[in-house]
C-alpha cells in the first residue's frame, strides 16, 4: 500500500506560469516555480496533459502521446523538469488519457482514410444509441467518410478507443512504458472506469452510463495494464479518475490485493451543491450529504485497507474557496479557506492540492458568455436559451470549469505572463497572490504549509484510524492509534457554535475560544485538539 502521507500538487500547465510570452503557461514556467511547490512539502507534481493536441479540451484530446506539445516547450525542457524536480524531492505524475484520443490522432485519421486496422481502434455503429455525451448532446457522431457513427463520450473531437482490441491495449502499454523510461514516477488515468463498454451496444437507461461505467472487463483491463507497465516499479504512484462509480468498485480498483491501481479519485462529495443532481443549479449546499459521503467513503476505504484520495479541487471543479456557505468578509474568507483545508487534509488518504488552492483562489464573475472558454460551459450556455442570461451567467460563476483554469496569481501584478493570458486572470489578483501571502504569517498559504508539515510528521494523522463523530452542524472526526488521539472540529457555517468537550493540549487554533470544558467555535473556524 502506498504512503497515506503523500501530498500531490496538481499543475494545469496552461495556466501556471508563462515564460515564452505567448500568454500560455509552459514547462520552463513550471521549472521556475519548483521551489514554491517543494517548500510547501509536496512529494509529487501531477501535470495535466502536455502532449500534442488541438486543445479542444485543453489537452484531454491527445493527438500524439509520445510528444510534448511545442506550446509547452521542448522534449529537453521536459527532461530538465524531471531532473530538477527530483533534486528537490519531487516526482512527476503524468496524465494519461486512454478512454479516447483526439480526432486528429493519426489512428483516427487513418481510420477515416479507410484503413480497417485503425477503424478497429475505435467504436462504430450504423445507428446511434441514445447515450448522451458528458459535454451535452448525443454521444455518437456521423462520419461522412465511413457512413457510420463513432462513439465520443466527451467532445465530438474525442472519439472513444476500442479497448476490446488487443492492439489498442498494446499501443497503450507502449506509451506508458515510454514515459516510465523518461523518469515519470506517477500516472493519473483519465476517466479510466469508462473504457470497458457493455456489448452489444444498446440504449440502456437514462443517459446510457450504465452501459459503459465500471464495465464488464474493466478489472481485467486494469490488471493487464498494470502487469504490462508499472508493476515493475513499486515507486510509481497510480491514481484512476472514476466517473459515477461506487464504493464497491473503488475498493476493487485500489485494493493492494488485486493489482490494479494504487488509488482512485471519486467525486461524490463534490456534488453536494448539485440540487437534484443537476450540475448547473445555483445557491445550494447540502451539508448533511457532504458529511455522510465523506464519512461513508472514508470508513469503507479504511475497513478494506484501501488508499483514499483527499481533494477539494482540480481543473474540472469550481474553486473550493467560493463553494458552499459564502464568507461575508475577507477575515471570514481567510478562516473558511483554512477550515476547508483542515477538514479535508487531516482525513485518511493521499492529498491532492490544485494550483492556486493554496492561496485560496476564487471563482470568476462572468459578465458575458465571452468570458467562458471551456467547451462544456459554452455548450451549457447555448443549449439553455430558455433560461435568462443572468441566471446562466450565475451558473457559470458557480460551476464552470473555467473558474479553476484562470492563470496563477503570483504577485500583486499577477505575473503569470508579460502578455495577455489565454484565459483572463481573476481581477482579484492584487489581493490574492503568492508573494503577498508568503510574507504574511497568517495567510492561507502559510496555513497549508503548516498543515502539510503537521500531517507528514505525524503517524496518527497519516496512518492512524479515523472515526467520525456525528453533530448536526459541525464536521468532527478523530484520528488515533493506541497511544494518541486527535480530534478535528470544523465549522463550515457563517454562525458560531459551541461544543462540549474535555480536552488537554491544543496544537492548532484558528480563532476558536477554548473554555475549560467548552469550545466556542466562530464562523468558519476549525481546530485540532490532542486528547
Ligand atoms: O474528466 C472527466 C469527467 O467526466 C468530468 O470531470 C467532467 O469533465 C466534468 O464532470 C464535466 O462537468 C476528465 C478530465 O479531467 C477532463 O478535464 C476532461 O475534459 C475529460 O476527462 C475528458 O477527457
Structure description:
The chain is 28% helix and 17% strand. With 531 residues, it is α/β, with parallel strands linked by helices. The strands form five sheets. Strands 11-10-9-5-2-1-13-12 form an eight-stranded parallel sheet. α10 (330-345) packs parallel to α14 (444-456). The site of 1-O-alpha-D-glucopyranosyl-D-fructose (TEU) has 13 residues, from loops. 1-O-alpha-D-glucopyranosyl-D-fructose binds at residues 57, 60, 97, 134, 154, 190-191, 241, 243, 279, 315-316, 376.
Put the structure in a nutshell.
By secondary structure, this protein is an alpha/beta fold.
What is the element layout, followed by pairings?
Elements: E1 7-11, H1 27-32, H2 34-40, E2 44-47, E3 51-52, E4 64-68, H3 75-87, E5 91-96, H4 106-112, H5 116-119, E6 124-125, E7 140-143, E8 148-151, H6 166-181, E9 186-189, H7 218-228, E10 237-241, H8 247-254, E11 263-265, H9 287-303, E12 309-310, H10 330-345, E13 350-354, H11 375-383, H12 389-399, H13 434-439, H14 444-456, H15 459-463, E14 465-469, E15 475-480, E16 485-490, E17 497-500, E18 505-509, E19 513-514, E20 518-521, E21 526-530
Parallel strand pairs: 1-2, 1-13, 2-5, 5-9, 9-10, 10-11, 12-13
Antiparallel strand pairs: 3-4, 6-8, 7-8, 14-15, 15-16, 16-21, 17-20, 18-21, 19-20
Helix pairs in contact: 10-14
Amino acid at each position: 500500500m502506498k504512503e497515506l502521507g503523500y501530498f500531490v500538487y496538481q499543475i494545469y500547465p496552461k495556466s501556471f506560469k508563462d515564460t515564452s510570452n505567448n500568454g500560455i503557461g509552459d514547462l520552463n514556467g513550471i521549472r521556475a516555480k519548483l521551489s514554491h511547490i517543494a517548500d510547501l512539502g509536496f512529494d509529487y507534481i501531477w501535470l495535466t496533459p502536455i502532449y500534442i493536441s488541438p486543445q479542444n479540451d485543453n489537452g484531454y484530446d491527445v493527438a500524439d502521446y509520445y510528444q510534448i506539445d511545442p506550446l509547452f516547450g521542448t522534449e529537453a525542457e521536459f527532461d530538465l523538469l524531471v531532473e530538477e524536480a527530483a533534486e528537490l524531492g519531487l516526482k512527476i505524475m503524468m496524465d494519461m488519457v486512454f478512454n479516447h484520443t483526439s480526432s486528429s490522432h493519426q489512428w483516427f485519421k487513418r481510420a477515416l482514410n479507410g484503413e480497417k486496422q485503425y477503424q478497429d481502434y475505435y467504436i462504430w455503429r450504423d445507428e446511434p444509441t441514445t447515450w448522451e455525451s458528458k459535454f451535452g448532446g448525443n454521444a455518437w457522431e456521423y462520419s461522412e467518410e465511413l457512413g457510420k457513427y463513432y462513439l465520443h463520450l466527451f467532445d465530438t473531437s474525442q472519439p472513444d478507443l476500442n479497448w476490446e482490441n488487443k492492439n489498442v491495449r498494446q499501443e497503450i502499454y507502449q506509451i506508458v512504458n515510454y514515459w516510465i523510461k523518461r523518469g515519470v514516477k506517477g500516472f493519473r488515468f483519465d476517466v479510466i472506469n469508462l473504457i470497458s463498454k457493455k456489448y452489444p451496444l444498446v440504449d440502456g437507461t437514462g443517459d446510457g452510463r450504465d452501459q459503459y461505467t465500471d464495465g464488464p472487463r474493466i478489472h481485467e483491463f486494469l490488471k493487464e495494464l498494470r502487469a504490462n507497465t508499472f508493476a515493475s516499479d513499486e515507486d510509481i504512484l497510480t491514481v484512476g479518475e472514476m466517473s459515477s462509480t461506487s464504493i464497491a468498485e473503488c475498493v476493487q480498483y485500489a485494493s493492494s490485493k488485486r493489482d490494479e491501481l494504487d488509488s482512485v479519485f471519486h467525486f461524490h462529495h463534490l456534488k453536494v451543491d448539485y440540487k437534484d443532481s443537476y450540475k448547473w443549479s445555483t445557491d445550494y449546499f447540502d451539508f448533511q450529504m457532504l458529511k455522510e459521503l465523506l464519512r461513508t467513503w472514508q470508513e469503507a476505504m479504511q475497513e478494506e485497507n484501501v488508499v483514499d484520495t483527499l481533494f477539494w479541487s482540480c481543473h474540472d471543479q469550481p474553486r473550493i474557496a467560493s463553494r458552499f456557505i459564502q464568507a461575508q468578509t475577507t477575515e471570514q474568507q481567510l478562516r473558511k479557506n483554512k477550515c476547508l483545508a483542515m477538514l479535508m487534509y487531516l482525513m485518511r488518504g493521499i492529498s491532492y492540492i490544485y494550483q492556486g488552492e493554496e492561496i485560496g483562489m476564487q471563482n470568476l464573475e462572468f459578465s458575458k458568455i465571452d468570458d467562458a472558454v471551456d467547451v462544456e460551459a459554452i455548450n451549457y450556455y447555448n443549449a439553455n436559451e430558455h433560461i435568462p442570461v443572468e441566471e446562466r451567467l450565475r451558473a457559470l460563476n458557480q460551476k464552470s470549469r473555467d473558474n479553476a483554469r484562470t492563470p496563477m496569481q503570483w504577485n500583486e501584478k499577477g505575473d503569470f505572463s508579460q502578455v495577455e493570458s489565454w484565459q483572463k486572470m481573476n481581477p482579484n489578483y492584487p489581493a490574492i497572490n503568492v508573494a503577498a501571502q508568503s510574507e504574511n504569517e497568517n495567510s492561507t498559504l502559510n496555513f497549508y504549509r503548516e498543515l502539510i508539515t503537521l500531517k507528514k510528521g505525524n503517524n496518527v494523522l497519516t496512518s492512524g484510524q479515523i472515526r467520525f463523530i456525528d453533530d448536526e452542524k459541525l464536521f468532527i472526526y478523530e484520528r488515533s492509534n493506541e497511544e494518541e488521539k486527535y480530534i478535528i472540529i470544523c465549522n463550515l457555517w457563517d454562525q458560531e457554535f459551541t461544543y462540549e468537550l474535555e480536552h488537554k493540549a491544543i496544537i492548532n487554533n484558528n480563532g476558536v475560544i477554548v473554555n475549560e470544558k467548552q469550545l466556542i467555535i466562530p464562523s468558519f473556524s476549525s481546530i485540532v485538539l490532542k486528547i
